[in-house]
Design goal:
six-stranded parallel beta sheet; 35% helix; 2 domains; single chain; Rossmann fold; 375 residues
Length: 375
């Protein structure tokens, strides 16, 4: 099978960038011909004024993709992120294609200028009424960038390609499903439950590093939507002996002897960190699609404590593995930790089976190629 993957890489690595690179590697390992059409976003937008200016319709992207589709002739086209380097031009280039097109929704940028529906640390849904609010409140860095982001996705929202029978959305949860139908007015949209995969950290050889005997673990960025700052305020109020270990791609300075920060450990080190923690905590402050860290935690069969902001589809099916808490409630965090301790001490605890059945390499490849072939 010939697969064309389209992605504009974020300047700071995260789950979406990893997903794309892992897909390319896995698909090629199974003998498929994979073409990755990609661009690399910059951290300082002032370094790429031209790229920003033409992002609502980038003619270079349009003609490159038109030519690539003609010469490569893919059987499947899979789009991830198009902000900002690729832009709406990609959808214009694909508008007449009869090839099946799959759009993975990793965040809320289709519906919100800053992608997380958060303003001043609080939930905000004003973009659902009008994208002009994003410009008014400078929701994405500043008014200029907010305007470009809003225009970018306003153009995309009006495109007919989403209404074609050969266009499919990979949606991570019910909240995204609702937005696709209501905001895009696509009641009959082709929406498919998001397939996912992460490395099996149980199978990765550990590299031991110096850590406390007992600790809880947070893995992720410190950006506002991840809720880390709010969570740390709660954590400092806890009457708890265990320390907190934070793994992040950023250089953080926490300034607390009970909190240990680790910057970008290797996979071998991360395997050791996961396997020896008491539980993993995900303090997201937005309706996150499906955090990779949840799946990574299941691969090592550890309890997980997640913010109740995360809109996990079929959460009731995971109630014996996942416990939730409110970011604004110390009592709810204490209760969640107590439940996680019961999970940890239970001989019947088996979060690993959820990983094997749904998110292992084999399960992921079977699921995604079933979609690619049968739709």
């Amino acid at each position: 099978m010939k697969i064309l993957i389209i992605h504009s890489f974020y300047s700071i690595d995260g789950g979406e960038n990893k997903r794309v690179l892992e897909d390319v590697e896995m698909f090629k390992s199974k003998g498929h011909e994979v073409m990755l059409y990609s661009k690399k976003n910059v951290t300082n937008y002032f370094q790429d004024i031209l790229g920003l200016f033409i992002s609502p319709f980038n003619p270079f992207v349009y003609f490159q993709l038109k030519r690539l589709i003609k010469t490569f002739n893919p059987d499947v086209i899979h789009i991830h992120n198009t902000w900002y380097k690729i832009g709406p031009a990609a959808y214009f280039a694909l508008s007449k294609s009869k090839t099946n097109i799959f759009q993975s929704l990793h965040n809320l940028r289709f519906f919100c200028a800053n992608a997380f529906m958060i303003r001043n640390g609080e939930e905000c849904t004003k973009c659902l009424d009008s994208r002009f609010y994003a410009i008014k409140y400078s929701c994405y860095k500043n008014r200029g960038l907010s305007a470009i982001s809003s225009l970018h996705y306003y153009i995309i929202s009006k495109m007919r390609v989403f209404r074609k029978n050969n266009f499919y959305f990979f949606s991570p949860n019910y909240y995204f499903d609702k937005l696709i139908k209501n905001i895009f007015r696509l009641d009959d949209a082709n929406i498919i439950e998001f397939p996912n995969y992460v490395k099996d950290f149980q199978a990765i050889k550990e590299k031991k590093i110096l850590l406390p005997n007992k600790y809880y673990l947070v893995v992720g960025r410190s950006s506002i939507e991840k809720g880390l700052n709010i969570f740390l305020g709660l954590w400092k109020l806890l009457d708890i002996k265990e320390k907190l270990v934070i793994v992040s791609p950023e250089n953080l300075s926490i300034g607390n002897k009970n909190i240990i920060y680790l910057n970008n450990p290797s996979d071998n080190e991360l395997a050791y960190i996961y396997k020896n923690c008491k539980a993993v905590i995900v303090p997201s402050n937005w309706v996150e699609g499906f955090p990779r860290v949840i799946i990574e935690t299941s691969s090592v069969n550890k309890p997980i404590i997640v913010s109740d902001k995360i809109a996990i589809t079929k959460l009731e099916a995971l109630q014996n593995h996942i416990t939730t808490f409110n970011l604004e409630s110390l009592e709810s965090l204490e209760k969640a930790i107590s439940i996680a301790k019961r999970f940890e001490n239970s001989s019947d605890y088996n979060f690993r089976s959820w990983y094997d059945n749904n998110f292992s390499r084999e399960a992921y490849l079977k699921t995604i190629f079933d979609f690619y072939i049968n739709n």
